[in-house]
């Protein structure tokens, strides 16, 4: 994705620019959420997961990414100086690639937050099911291509599959 985002851009303008770029790349947006206190996300049509992997994760093969037959592609948008909850999941692993950065990330196998790592454009990170993680907006808007790898074929992950250990917004 080739998006020019300024820190002076409002959240509405940032989402408009990203939405236009997603559509320009022929991906169908099936859901959009701008109401998260840390930013928001775009959910891409799951039937386009293979194309999404080719576009954003070309170093991976679709068969290597699939744990079950279900993959869910998303674009995460994190606002400057905001952070998602310190969290983990029971029914999914996640793969992230920075497409607009830099962003901060913390990961750990325990409830203690790991060290802050700065990821820049094209950096890639993978979190296993149960691994604690947090995405952090630094001085500018951050944009992440994300794949949910559902680990339970009979009970796919959803937004309710978030165990929050710490959350700046009291959720």
Please describe what this structure looks like.
The protein has 171 residues and is an alpha+beta fold. It has three helices and eleven strands; from the N terminus they run H-E-E-H-H-E-E-E-E-E-E-E-E-E. A six-stranded antiparallel β-sheet has the order 1-2-3-10-5-8, covered by helices on one side. The protein has a three-stranded antiparallel β-sheet with strand order 7-6-9, with no helix packed on it. The protein has a two-stranded antiparallel ribbon with strand order 4-11. The chain is globular. The termini are far apart.
Keyphrases for this structure?
alpha+beta, RmlC_Cupin_sf, 171 residues, 3 helices, six-stranded antiparallel beta sheet
Gyration radius over CA: 15 Å
> Roughly what is the average pLDDT, rounded to an integer?
94
Largest sheet: 6 strands, antiparallel
> How much strand?
35-45%
- The helical percent reads 10-25%
The global form is: globular
- Helix and strand element order: HEEHHEEEEEEEEE
- Give the termini distance in whole angstroms: 31 Å
Residue ranges: pLDDT <50 for 5 or more in a row?
none
Give me the number of helical elements: 3
Beta-strand segment tally: 11
| Spatial order of strands in the largest sheet | 1-2-3-10-5-8
């Amino acid at each position: 994705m080739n998006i020019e985002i300024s820190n002076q851009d409002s959240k509405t303008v940032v989402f408009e620019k990203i939405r236009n770029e997603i559509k320009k790349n022929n991906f169908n947006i099936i859901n959009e959420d701008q109401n998260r206190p840390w930013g928001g996300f775009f959910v891409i049509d799951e039937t386009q997961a293979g194309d999404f992997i080719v576009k954003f994760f070309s170093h991976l093969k679709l068969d290597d990414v699939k744990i079950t037959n279900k993959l869910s592609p998303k674009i995460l948008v994190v606002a400057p100086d905001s952070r998602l909850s310190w969290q983990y999941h029971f029914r999914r692993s996640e793969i992230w690639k920075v497409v607009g950065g830099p962003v901060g990330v913390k990961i750990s196998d325990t409830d203690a937050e790991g060290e802050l790592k700065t990821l820049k454009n094209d950096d890639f990170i993978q979190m296993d099911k149960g691994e604690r993680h947090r995405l952090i907006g630094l001085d500018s808007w951050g944009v992440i291509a994300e794949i949910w790898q559902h680990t339970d074929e009979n009970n796919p992950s959803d937004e309710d599959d978030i165990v929050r250990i710490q959350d700046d917004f009291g959720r």
